[in-house]
Automatic annotation (TrEMBL):
<feature type="transmembrane region" description="Helical">
    <location>
        <begin position="45"/>
        <end position="63"/>
    </location>
</feature>
<dbReference type="Pfam" id="PF04588">
    <property type="entry name" value="HIG_1_N"/>
</dbReference>
<feature type="transmembrane region" description="Helical">
    <location>
        <begin position="6"/>
        <end position="25"/>
    </location>
</feature>
<protein>
    <submittedName>
        <fullName>Twin transmembrane helix small protein</fullName>
    </submittedName>
</protein>
<dbReference type="InterPro" id="IPR007667">
    <property type="entry name" value="Hypoxia_induced_domain"/>
</dbReference>
<keyword id="KW-0472">Membrane</keyword>
<keyword id="KW-0812">Transmembrane</keyword>
<feature type="domain" description="HIG1">
    <location>
        <begin position="1"/>
        <end position="64"/>
    </location>
</feature>
<keyword id="KW-1133">Transmembrane helix</keyword>
Length: 64
């Protein structure tokens, strides 16, 4: 389980955070909708929380 979390789930979570951050930056640079920027910011915060949880689970599983 530890290798599954650290080798597959964690990189996917980190890439999801980076992708949403990039989409938000592109939206702001193009002068896009402020509502869309707000939704992307909220999604990024949620994905960051999920990435932290996955990281902590991986560390816990590796320590067992």
């Amino acid at each position: 389980m530890a290798t599954f979390l650290s080798n597959l789930v964690l990189p996917v979570a980190l890439c999801a955070v980076a992708l949403v951050l990039l989409l938000g930056l592109i939206n702001m640079m193009r002068g896009g909708s402020p509502n869309r920027s707000q939704k992307l910011m909220r999604l990024r915060v949620l994905l960051q929380f999920a990435a932290i949880v996955v990281t902590m689970l991986a560390i816990w599983a590796l320590g067992r």
